[in-house]
Amino acid sequence: MIVLVMNSGSSSLKFQLIDMDNGDVMSKGLVERIGMGGDAGFEVKAKGEKIKKDVKADDHKQAVALVIDALTTGDLAVVDDLNNIDAIGHRIVQGGDSFPKAAVVDQRVKDLVREYGAMAPLHNYAALAGIEACEELMPTIPSVCVFDTSYHMTMDPAHYMYAIPYDDYKELKVRRYGAHGTSHKYVAREAAKAMGRPLEELKLITCHLGNGASVSAIKGGKIVDTSMGFTPLEGLVMGTRVGDIDAAAVLFIMKNKGYSIDEMDTYLNKKCGLLGVSGISNDFRDLEDAMQEGNERAKLAYDMFVLQVKKYIGAYYAELDGCDAIVFTAGIGENDDLVRGSICKGLDALGISVDPAKNDGCREFRDISKEGAKAHAFVIPTNEEYAIATETIEAVKEAGLVK
Ligand code: ADP
What we know:
It contains 15 helices and 14 strands. With 403 residues, it is of the alpha/beta class. An eight-stranded mixed beta sheet has the order 5-4-3-2-1-6-8-7, sandwiched between helices. The protein has a six-stranded mixed beta sheet with strand order 11-10-9-12-14-13, with helices on both faces. The model has no long low-confidence stretch (mean pLDDT 96). The site of adenosine-5'-diphosphate has 13 residues, from helix 10 and helix 12.
């Protein structure tokens, strides 16, 4: 089966066309700067080649039209007929508590994605625009919504509730939803495969460390707890997001700086985290360069990030009553041996020990644990697109929509 995976951001659209019979990525690329006034950027990689050009894309419909054009015409075309594509999988950041699994798009699904857009305005509305463009331009191909939040729906109330008045939770649905669900699910399955053991009997701590970052505790293949909350702002120190902070500090800053709600929202999401503390960058590569030159604030941001991940690992070890494996994934987790080493330093009491010889320079799927350590420590490159395509196929099969 061939699946087109769409990941729409407010001003971007990333896509991958995957042949799920063999896992081959037939074509991939992105449209950026959609609707920003000037030219949009368009990049496509297929058949071992890459095309990059400036194009016009005033909205997501035009961006989808560009993708269709690239897939079916010109030098990098990979399908003769659009109907060779069996399904389209759309990444949706926020599915509230309505979607424990992926859902074939219909009016109800779209209404709910719009409703939950209030909690993820940058993402859900853009995704809806992408879905509607696909419905219009590829009406015969079923679309599926794959939610970042679905995998976290197994959390029990003690884990997902905030200690706010219960009626307010009921009325406003303010609770923890988590994020990066497809990634946590994918690497958990891959870790079980690598260990040659059924996921159902494992206790795992998965660390998705990218610009956005989260840690999850997984028992028997189900999420027990996760560090992201009502929105992807809670938990770890992130590139530009604040992570855990006393709510009273938020109010204090707003009052003293005279910030409006929207200004404070931008502050917490865009001006804090590694960038805010270091004053240099949200990118670990820049921070580590600055640290080597003796920059103390870069070192402080680094230390805060590492400490926060460690705290969650400790908490989740306690919640799971053990840990068979810890997994590092996403931009930082997959590439940054220094950070992985710092996080695992001093965790020997939990059975987590990293072998520097295996960790140093590792940027591939590998068990980096020390010989004899009780827990495995894996570096597993995430593949969210493949995971989305897998769930898309499951949903269309279940709905009897397979050609
Ligand atoms: P997201 O999908 O949340 O935007 P990614 O998973 O792509 O994030 O991760 C991006 C981050 O990964 C960068 O901001 C950078 O901090 C980190 N990163 C990427 N490559 C490296 C590397 N080689 N060494 C250290 N950090 C890296």
